[in-house]
Amino acid sequence: MKLVFDNVAKKFKDTWAVEPFSAELTEGIYALLGPNGSGKTTLMRMIAHILKPTSGRILLDGKDISLLDEKYRDLLGYLPQDFGMYPHFTAERFLNYFASLKGLDKQETKEKVTEVLKLVNLEESRKKKVRTFSGGMKRRLGIAQALLNDPRIVVVDEPTAGLDPKERIRFRNLLSDISHERIVLLSTHIVSDIEYIANEIFIMEKGSLKQRSNVDGLLAEMDGKVWKVLMKQEELDSIQTHYKVGNIQRKEHEVEVRIVSDVQPFHHAKVVPPTLEDVYLYHFYEEDQENV
């Protein structure tokens, strides 16, 4: 199975939300990484066949998904960032409802509801009402509905937004589990969501694809650009004005500062191994500062 983006772009009035985007996806996990407003959600909605591209095509095994229409939707599982739920439904009733929308018969529904509840570790909560669920349980129920039709393409938008670290890890492992023989595409601005599971990462900024690589490739390009330096507390404000500052750790009478820079910021600064968080900081420091 191959999903191809052939110069896909989307324009709203006079603004390009997504500039021409091209890529080929096969089975595995792919991540769209970027800050809010980078075009991730718009691209995801085009993949989910909710928005039509202004130009370009999305092809599944050589066929335009707009022509495949229902056949494509039958292969698709989608979990948007803002996924509405019926709070007075039980988890089981909620999934039964979505199974009927997806055209499953009664026997299929019974089997699939039990299967996906087990998969997302909610089987013991099947009779509980959704309003009693934590944020993480709701996101897991959301992915359960996306898997009811046994999709070959799974699209999830900001899947761990608002979750605590334990639930983020659980959800991340769940995505890894379901990626076997599926194309899983997720968007996020949380680096830890993708650091250990993504086969390939697409870095997006202001609607355009800025860079694409696997984690090792992104880290290799950051070699020699991450520094550690000790300085006095009173120097910190000036440093933050002139450099991309990551971690700050206090050490008795000094502070240890992690700086992302193409050149050595100070003669006594020591180069250190980069992380994916450094990659994000390198590309998006200015955007995050504007949103503070």
Automatic annotation (TrEMBL):
<dbReference type="InterPro" id="IPR003593">
    <property type="entry name" value="AAA+_ATPase"/>
</dbReference>
<dbReference type="InterPro" id="IPR003439">
    <property type="entry name" value="ABC_transporter-like_ATP-bd"/>
</dbReference>
<keyword id="KW-0067">ATP-binding</keyword>
<protein>
    <submittedName>
        <fullName>ABC transporter ATP-binding protein</fullName>
    </submittedName>
</protein>
<keyword id="KW-0813">Transport</keyword>
<keyword id="KW-0547">Nucleotide-binding</keyword>
<dbReference type="InterPro" id="IPR017871">
    <property type="entry name" value="ABC_transporter-like_CS"/>
</dbReference>
<feature type="domain" description="ABC transporter">
    <location>
        <begin position="3"/>
        <end position="231"/>
    </location>
</feature>
<dbReference type="Pfam" id="PF00005">
    <property type="entry name" value="ABC_tran"/>
</dbReference>
<dbReference type="InterPro" id="IPR027417">
    <property type="entry name" value="P-loop_NTPase"/>
</dbReference>
<dbReference type="GO" id="GO:0016887">
    <property type="term" value="F:ATP hydrolysis activity"/>
</dbReference>
<comment type="similarity">
    <text>Belongs to the ABC transporter superfamily.</text>
</comment>
<dbReference type="GO" id="GO:0005524">
    <property type="term" value="F:ATP binding"/>
</dbReference>
